[in-house]
């Protein structure tokens, strides 16, 4: 089966938040009241009921104003850290088309996937004790529709299609940008995790951090160990959850849950 | 948010997730990509109606999905709104406001019955449609009979009513604006304006 | 829009000024992105704020709110001086060669003819010099010092790059960088477009500002061209349609409203049928009588006869010089001269200027009818003292407000059919998807019930002047709730003799044998059915005309003035972007803005104008034939061009107790209002989704000003003007640069609209601050560039 992917050409993003709202609507999320944060970004972060976030970053490049807007959601990694970390059978699955999907009915709320994710995406709900994230609208994709965010995007900043096609498009777009004076333009697709099914085109690919993207994403060694040579230990400790907690502590400290309401 | 319950009730309960054929081995953490059937499509059996977004003037076409197949005993309820891919204007895309039009249509804050506020009153009181229309017509006639100007001071026929103003909103369709015009000219109103002025 | 959204993809340069399409028309903005990606088009944004459109622009130039004419005047100067204009186009398609009468001039801020007592111009010196047969004299060499071109050159010679920088607050280099890109479209094979919105219309000199833009586009040869034009984005789904359907001063189809001095239909037709000014002018308004009689016949049916002037006497006639536009009639209401008020879906307390005055005006009414989806600030005005306690603590107590109020629940857009006209002038039909909630009713039913009930009262009881009411046609199949399809057919028009729908306005007659509710929409519902509901997606020209999708006024023409995209012989200036082509017998492509089988040399390209060409010099506007930079009525500086005549001398101002204007000593900062992409006007505060993406009212404060005042992001600030105040958290940002204007530092403060005292999420009404100052041509209030003070609350 061909892998599907999402291309995000950040040079075309106008921060209109249509993708945010398309995601909320399609997934029938409960709305929360945004908060004022001295920014147009009123949702501070991803949340159990908010899976698609535009990060706004006021900065400057070479002395001129710059206002970077970047869509941020699950990257649907080829080698998904969340799957590696998850101890609950069937809670996280990777579809043949590459989509990494959470099935909350099997989720035990341990939060190990949060630890395993190099992009800090999954969110644990305090209310339901389950973890949530973007499903790349697996329900829509299954019947031949595009994900809701992709369909809504007014400026064609988002494209959906086969991963190979989009890779080609992304490379070409980056070359175009280079020709038009953006020497640092490039493609970002998370090489540290075997490639992601979300591909970014950045004008300033030398500075992914300015867009809120990790410079060198990788699965924590603790998780890799656990699911690699030390897999048997993982199997044993599943019932105790000790190692998982340890892994989490090593990486981010005490586990946090995010209130949906 | 007080509509959060209603928006979640129907689909959350019906959009059952098929677990699909998962392979779990033993205490298992099978790393093979699992093949799972996706959740059911929430708009699989809705009725689709073509409409146009009421917000800005780009004029995006939208498809309004309503519950039910138009059968006699079903009251259609809007369950989803999505961009119309056929429109050369938006080709299926929408902005954050357009994509959430359902929240505007199905909204607990909508007015559902006529209200009346008597002079000096501190609150609205419900009023029946017929009574409201009767009272309004009576007020219009009283004012018009008393203040209508048939001839000006130079004796010229002017047939105007300058003591009543009428304004139209930004989503009144052409046909509604045309009917408002007929009401206006019937009464002789000069002060007729709309959102376009601002 | 002269062109349309889909056409923007054809452009080489987009100037966004007085608009913010990435935020306020995001879907329309996709065509800008297409032009950039596929044509390598350049996007230039000139705006007081570095907004989300600027964030993706090739070039951003900051400016002071209210100084757009100076900037555009500077562009005109720049292109004339460097000969970057398209000379052949200018000679052929504009009145540049026309000679203006001796005696015309401009001095110290005034054109000739200013009457300082009446505060208006006497326009006799603004006229063309004519020959024996009444036609304007021309000089095709453009060298005669009294030809429009030379006068234009002289007028804008003051608008140097330095003068622009001094007024607008950008640097001369920034201005010239933008000018070079914009003026690169003066070549025949380049097109540039302008996208603007309320940042241009909400000034006390807005119509002149848009005239400047049109002049600039004419000089560059961009009018009529695919990828060109002057494009008003318009802010609401059907205000284009509302504009087409008439207002206080005009009837449907831009037919002028008669005044008391036009007693008979003959007098009316004579007054409003222009005479051609050049021998080759088609002068399409010579058909005024056909359009007017067909309208009267639609209104008054059998009662309209040739003998009674087709019922013309029934049309109300205002006194000469009277003004009932928005600001004026609210001023009258405020002064107790109005008794009744009917609002179908509009919220003047929120969206009119000077909200305290709006509230006060409504409190003086005897009765008020509001038809709405939600309880708005207008509906609940009588409770403002309680609901808006912070802002209106001294507003009248409800017990002392005698206004009787009716609030009627209306169906929303999804619950009724009918047609919206988008900014491309496309009439798009929509269908009802669901019934209205509860006991809400569609507007057509509410209007019909009121109309029929009033008429019945007059029938039963008699009363003053019943004729206009009794003779008005209302012969719909279901009179108490007319089908909008039936109404749309009436608007299109019928040939009464043949008993058929007319197929276009060319078939309308002035003998009473045709009806049409709006001649401009003739062709929208023909014998072949509802053209507005068409869904064809073909684009055979490749220019994005989409002629089979919906229906566009006039006559399904997609690019206005498309005859100007060709030279005298009918050959396109740009062979790749020629909207209509002359094949020797007829024009093909878009519907020609021309007679479809007339030779290229038969007529001037601008068929609606008596000149036959477009006007760089215009007698139509009240404050001068050329646009001049005037400061906003409240300004931090005196006009550097003529300090004694600082703001528009003809601006619409009021002088009541609530109409105060502030001065920069008390109110040192320039403020402007704006919209956010997350909200729509004053509606989405009733909707949960919008409040997730933007929950709070806030005030955008330049970083340098915040530092001066010790304000941190999120600190509560109070912004006050001579009218009122608002409070909210400060959004401290580098995106609004401090500007150097006439030697002094000017700070600008941006304040979003969208909040009020009704709705799920509450906040101050930004119009507490705005002045009752209006453009004298359009009656639009000045929401951009007024003065405020700002302090930590």
How would you describe what is shown here?
The complex is a heterotrimer of chains A (261), B (198) and C (793). With 261 residues, chain A is of the alpha+beta class. Chain A has one domain: Alpha-Beta Plaits (2-Layer Sandwich). Chain A contains 9 helices and 10 strands. In chain A, the strands form 4 sheets. Chain A has a 4-stranded mixed β-sheet with strand order 8-1-10-9. In chain A, a hairpin with a 6-residue loop joins strand 6 and strand 7. The longest helix of chain A has 17 residues. Chain A is globular, with a radius of gyration of 18 Å. Chain B is an alpha+beta fold and 198 residues long. Chain B has 2 domains: 75 residues, Phosphorylase Kinase, domain 1 (2-Layer Sandwich), CATH 3.30.200.210; 83 residues, no CATH class. Chain B is built from 5 helices and 9 strands. The radius of gyration of chain B is 27 Å and the shape is elongated. The N terminus of chain B is likely disordered. Chain C has 793 residues and is an alpha/beta fold. Chain C folds into 4 domains: 230 residues, Dimethylsulfoxide Reductase, domain 2 (3-Layer(aba) Sandwich), CATH 3.40.228.10; 129 residues, no CATH class; 101 residues, 3-Layer(aba) Sandwich (Rossmann fold), CATH 3.40.50.740; 141 residues, Barwin-like endoglucanases (Beta Barrel). Chain C is globular, with a radius of gyration of 26 Å. The model of chain C has no long low-confidence stretch (mean pLDDT 97). Chains in contact: A-B, A-C, B-C. The interface between A and B is large, with 48 and 44 residues.
Set down the secondary structure blueprint.
The complex is a heterotrimer of chains A (261), B (198) and C (793).
Chain A: E1 4-9, H1 18-26, E2 53-61, E3 64-72, H2 81-85, E4 92-94, E5 100-102, H3 112-116, E6 123-124, E7 131-132, H4 138-142, H5 148-152, E8 158-162, H6 163-179, E9 186-188, E10 198-202, H7 221-227, H8 231-237, H9 242-251
Parallel strand pairs in A: 1-10
Antiparallel strand pairs in A: 1-8, 2-3, 4-5, 6-7, 9-10
Chain B: H1 4-14, E1 47-52, E2 61-66, E3 78-83, H2 96-99, H3 101-105, E4 115-117, E5 125-126, H4 129-147, E6 149-151, E7 157-160, E8 164-168, H5 174-187, E9 192-194
Parallel strand pairs in B: 8-9
Antiparallel strand pairs in B: 1-2, 2-3, 4-5, 6-7
Chain C: E1 13-17, H1 21-24, H2 30-39, E2 42-47, E3 59-62, H3 68-81, H4 87-93, E4 106-107, E5 110-111, E6 114-115, E7 120-121, H5 148-155, H6 161-168, H7 172-182, E8 192-196, H8 198-201, H9 206-219, E9 230-232, H10 239-244, E10 250-251, E11 255-256, H11 265-272, H12 288-300, H13 326-334, E12 340-344, H14 348-351, H15 355-362, E13 367-372, H16 384-387, E14 404-409, E15 418-421, E16 426-430, H17 443-461, H18 467-471, H19 484-492, E17 494-495, E18 500-501, E19 514-515, E20 525-526, E21 529-530, E22 551-552, E23 580-582, E24 587-589, E25 652-653, E26 669-674, H20 688-693, E27 699-702, H21 703-709, E28 716-720, E29 725-733, E30 739-741, E31 744-746, E32 748-752, E33 773-774, E34 784-792
Parallel strand pairs in C: 1-2, 1-8, 2-3, 8-9, 12-13, 13-14, 26-32, 27-29
Antiparallel strand pairs in C: 4-5, 6-7, 10-11, 15-16, 16-22, 17-18, 17-19, 20-21, 23-24, 25-33, 26-34, 28-29, 28-34, 30-31
Helix pairs in contact in C: 3-6, 3-7, 3-9, 6-7, 13-15
């Amino acid at each position: 089966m061909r892998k599907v992917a999402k291309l995000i050409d950040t040079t075309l993003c106008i921060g209109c938040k249509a993708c945010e709202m398309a995601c909320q609507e399609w997934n029938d999320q409960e709305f929360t009241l945004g908060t004022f944060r001295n920014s147009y970004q009123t949702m501070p972060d991803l949340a159990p009921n908010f899976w698609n976030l535009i990060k706004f970053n006021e900065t400057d490049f070479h002395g001129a104003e710059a206002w970077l807007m970047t869509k941020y959601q699950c990257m649907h990694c080829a080698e998904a850290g969340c799957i590696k970390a998850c101890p609950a059978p069937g809670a996280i699955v990777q579809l043949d088309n590459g989509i990494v999907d959470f099935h909350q009915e099997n989720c035990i709320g341990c939060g190990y996937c949060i630890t395993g994710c190099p992009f800090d995406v999954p969110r644990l709900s305090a209310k339901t004790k389950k973890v949530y994230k973007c499903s790349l609208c697996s329900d829509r994709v299954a019947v031949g529709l595009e994900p809701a965010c992709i369909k809504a995007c007014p400026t064609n900043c988002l494209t959906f299609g086969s991963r190979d096609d989009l890779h080609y498009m992304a490379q070409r777009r980056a070359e175009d940008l280079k020709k038009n004076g953006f020497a640092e333009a490039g493609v970002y697709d998370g090489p540290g995790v075997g490639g992601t099914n979300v591909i970014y085109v950045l004008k300033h690919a030398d500075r992914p951090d300015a867009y809120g993207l990790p410079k060198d994403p990788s699965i924590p060694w603790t998780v890799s160990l656990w699911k690699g040579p030390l897999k048997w230990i993982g199997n044993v400790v599943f019932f105790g959850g000790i190692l998982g907690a340890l892994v989490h502590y090593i990486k981010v400290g005490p586990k946090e849950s995010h209130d949906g309401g | 948010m007080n509509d959060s319950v209603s928006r979640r009730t129907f689909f959350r309960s019906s959009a059952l997730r098929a677990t699909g054929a998962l392979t779990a081995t033993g205490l298992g953490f099978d790393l093979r990509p699992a093949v799972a059937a996706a959740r059911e499509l929430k708009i699989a059996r809705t009725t689709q109606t073509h409409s146009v977004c009421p917000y800005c003037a780009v004029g995006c076409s939208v498809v309004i999905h309503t519950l039910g197949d138009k059968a006699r005993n079903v009251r259609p309820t809007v369950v989803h709104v999505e961009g119309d891919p056929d429109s050369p204007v938006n080709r299926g895309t929408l902005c954050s406001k357009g994509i959430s039009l359902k929240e505007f249509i199905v909204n607990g804050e909508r007015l559902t019955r006529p209200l009346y506020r008597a002079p000096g009153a501190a609150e609205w009181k419900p009023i029946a449609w017929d009574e409201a229309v009767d009272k309004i017509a009576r007020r219009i006639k009283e004012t018009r009979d008393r203040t209508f100007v048939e001839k000006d001071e130079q004796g010229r026929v002017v047939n105007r009513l300058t003591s009543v103003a009428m304004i139209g909103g930004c989503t009144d369709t052409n046909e509604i604006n045309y009917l408002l015009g007929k009401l206006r000219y019937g009464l002789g109103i000069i002060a007729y304006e709309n959102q376009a002025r601002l | 829009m002269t062109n349309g959204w889909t056409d923007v993809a054809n452009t080489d340069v987009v100037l966004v000024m007085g608009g913010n399409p990435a935020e306020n028309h995001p879907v329309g903005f996709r065509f800008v992105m297409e032009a950039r990606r596929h044509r390598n088009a350049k996007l230039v944004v000139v705006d007081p704020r570095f907004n989300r459109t600027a964030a993706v622009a090739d070039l951003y130039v900051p400016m002071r709110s209210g100084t757009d004419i100076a900037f555009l005047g500077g562009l005109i100067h720049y292109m004339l001086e460097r000969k970057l204009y398209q000379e052949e186009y200018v000679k052929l398609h504009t009145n540049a060669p026309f000679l203006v009468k001796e005696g015309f001039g401009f001095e110290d801020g005034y054109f000739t003819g200013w009457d300082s007592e009446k505060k208006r111009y006497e326009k006799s010196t603004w006229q063309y010099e004519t020959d024996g047969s009444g036609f304007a004299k021309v000089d095709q060499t453009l060298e005669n010092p009294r030809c429009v071109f030379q006068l234009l050159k002289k007028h804008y010679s003051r608008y140097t790059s330095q003068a622009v920088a001094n007024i607008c607050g950008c640097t001369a280099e920034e201005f010239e960088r933008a000018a070079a890109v914009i003026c690169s479209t003066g070549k025949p094979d380049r097109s540039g477009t302008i996208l603007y919105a309320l940042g241009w219309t909400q000034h006390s000199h807005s119509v002149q500002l848009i005239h400047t833009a049109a002049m600039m586009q004419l000089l560059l040869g961009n009018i009529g061209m695919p990828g060109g034009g002057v494009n008003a984005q318009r802010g609401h789904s059907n205000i284009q349609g509302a504009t087409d359907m008439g207002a206080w001063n005009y009837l449907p189809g831009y037919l002028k409203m008669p005044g008391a001095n036009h007693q008979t239909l003959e007098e009316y037709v004579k007054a409003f049928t222009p005479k051609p000014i050049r021998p080759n002018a088609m002068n399409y308004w010579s058909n005024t009588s056909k359009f007017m009689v067909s309208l009267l016949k639609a209104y008054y049916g059998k009662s309209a006869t040739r003998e009674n002037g087709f019922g013309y006497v029934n049309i109300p006639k205002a006194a000469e010089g009277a003004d009932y536009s928005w600001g004026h009639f609210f001023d009258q209401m405020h002064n107790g001269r109005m008794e009744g008020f009917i609002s179908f879906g509009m919220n003047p307390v929120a969206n009119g200027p000077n909200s305290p005055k709006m509230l006060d005006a409504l409190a003086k009414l005897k009765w008020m009818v509001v038809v709405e989806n939600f309880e708005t600030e207008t509906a609940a005005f009588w409770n403002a003292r309680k609901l808006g306690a912070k802002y209106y603590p001294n507003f009248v107590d409800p017990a002392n407000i005698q206004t009787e109020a009716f609030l009627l629940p209306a169906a929303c857009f999804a619950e009724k059919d009918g047609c919206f006209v988008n900014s491309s002038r496309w009439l798009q039909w929509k269908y009802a998807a669901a019934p209205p909630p509860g006991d809400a009713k569609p507007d057509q039913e509410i209007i019909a019930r009121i109309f029929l009930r009033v008429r019945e009262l007059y029938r039963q009881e008699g009363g003053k002047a019943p004729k206009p009411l009794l003779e008005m046609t209302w012969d719909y199949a279901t009179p108490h709730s007319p089908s909008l399809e039936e109404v749309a057919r009436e608007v299109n028009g019928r040939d009464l003799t043949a008993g058929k729908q007319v197929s276009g306005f060319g078939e309308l007659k002035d003998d009473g044998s045709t009806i049409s509710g709006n001649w401009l929409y003739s062709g929208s519902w023909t014998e072949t059915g509802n053209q507005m509901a068409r869904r064809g997606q073909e684009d055979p020209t490749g220019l994005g005309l989409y002629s089979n999708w919906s229906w566009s006024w006039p006559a399904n023409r997609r690019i206005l003035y498309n005859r100007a995209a060709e030279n005298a012989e009918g050959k396109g200036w740009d062979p790749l972007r020629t909207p209509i082509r002359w094949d020797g017998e007829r024009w093909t492509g878009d519907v020609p803005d021309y007679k479809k089988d007339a030779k290229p040399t038969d007529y001037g390209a601008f068929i609606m104008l008596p000149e036959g060409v477009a006007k760089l010099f215009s007698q139509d506007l009240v404050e001068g034939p050329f646009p001049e930079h005037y400061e906003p009525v409240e300004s931090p500086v005196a006009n550097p061009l003529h300090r004694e005549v600082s703001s528009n001398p003809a601006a619409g101002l009021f002088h009541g107790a609530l109409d105060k204007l502030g001065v920069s000593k008390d109110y040192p900062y320039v403020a402007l209002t704006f919209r956010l992409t997350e909200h729509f006007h004053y509606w989405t505060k009733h909707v949960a989704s919008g409040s997730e993406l933007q929950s709070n009212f806030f005030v955008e404060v330049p970083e340098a000003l915040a530092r001066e005042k010790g304000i941190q992001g999120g600190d509560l600030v109070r912004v006050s003007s001579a009218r009122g105040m608002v409070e909210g958290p400060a959004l401290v940002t580098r995106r609004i640069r401090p500007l150097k204007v006439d030697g002094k530092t000017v700070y600008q403060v941006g304040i979003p609209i969208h909040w009020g005292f009704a709705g799920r999420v509450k906040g101050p009404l930004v119009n507490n601050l705005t002045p009752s100052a209006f453009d004298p041509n359009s009656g639009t209030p000045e929401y951009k560039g007024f003065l405020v003070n700002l302090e930590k609350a």
